[in-house]
Amino acid sequence: MLIAKMDKIRNNLMKHSSIGGANMRYFKSYYLFIVITLLLTGCIGVETEKSPSNSKLTIESYNMSEKETLLISKTGVEQIKFFKLNGTLKEDDDLQFSVEVFENGKFKEELLKTWDELETKYNDSLISFGIIDNRDEDHSLKLLNGIPSGLAATFYSNNMTTSSFGLLIDRKMALEKNKPIYLTAWLGTTKNELRSGGGTTGELPQGIEEAELAFIYKVLWTDKEKK
Questions:
Q1: CB distance 129 to 146 below 8 Å
Q2: How far from chain centre, in Å, is Cα 186?
Q3: Are 218 and 97 in contact (CB under 8 A)?
Q4: 128 forms bridges with which residues in the sheet?
Q5: How far, in Å, CA of 50 to CA of 59, rounded?
Q6: Distance, CA of 190 to CA of 162 (rounded, Å)
Q7: How many other C-beta atoms are found inside a 10 Å radius of the C-beta of residue 60?
Q8: Cβ-Cβ contacts under 8 Å for 107 (sequence gap 6 or more)
Q9: Are 96 and 113 in contact (CB under 8 A)?
Q10: In this predicted structure, which of 20-24, 63-67, 70-74, 117-121 has the lowest mean pLDDT?
Q11: How would you list the strands of the sheet with 181-189, edge to edge?
């Protein structure tokens, strides 16, 4: 329909340009044709900029450079993992970030939960989960949740003597609506042995049932909560 309109405009302008043989009138008509064409093209561009009907969100581990690792080591954060987030949220969608706590293999509570994200477009946006061990001071762990819009932190009492910290994904993964992806896990015990808390598919680690205490970092693509 747009092409038909443009052809009609062009034909009318050519007709007018031939009447009287006036070059000035032809120039004005041609200029008007160009302006209308640009305006119509602009309207098409606006339509294509609307939010996609099917959003796609992906997440993957971010490998720090040697210099970045050195800089992080100067902050006192002993254990931290970074991830890259890409994609666009629709207006009614939301991303939730949180840390799930398990004791003796059973879910206990959810900490550092954030939702109602201000950002909706992610282009290699970084998120992270880190731990600072304050055992020498007050026997606590400081949990750090780095999200696209800021940083959340909390303290958790700790008397574990052995721990492990590992990734739960080994490749770029696509998020599925209402299905959590677990990104990294800290497992702790007062015993001398502990299975590594790693994984590859974004699921809960197998060694979680053997850990006396576990922190699992999670991201969830869901509907925006109605206020």
A1: yes
A2: 21
A3: yes
A4: 82, 146
A5: 23
A6: 6
A7: 16
A8: 100, 101
A9: yes
A10: 20-24
A11: 106-114, 93-103, 213-223, 181-189, 162-167
Predicted TM-score (pTM) of the model is 0.73
Structure tokens at 144: 């750090």
pLDDT in tens, 149-196: 889 999 999 889 889 999 999 999 999 999 999 999 999 999 888 876
Q: Which residues contact 53 (CB under 8 A, 6 or more apart)?
A: none
Instruction: Report residue 93 as tokens.
Output: 């969608």
Q: In what order do the strands lie in the sheet with 173-174?
A: 150-157, 140-147, 121-133, 79-88, 57-62, 173-174
Q: What is the DSSP string of 113-182?
A: EE-S-S--EEEEEEEEEEEEE-HHHHSEEEEEEEETTEEEEEEEE---SEEEEEESB-S-EE-BTTB-EE
> How far is it between the farthest Cα atoms of the chain?
100
DSSP element (H, E) containing 73: helix 66-73
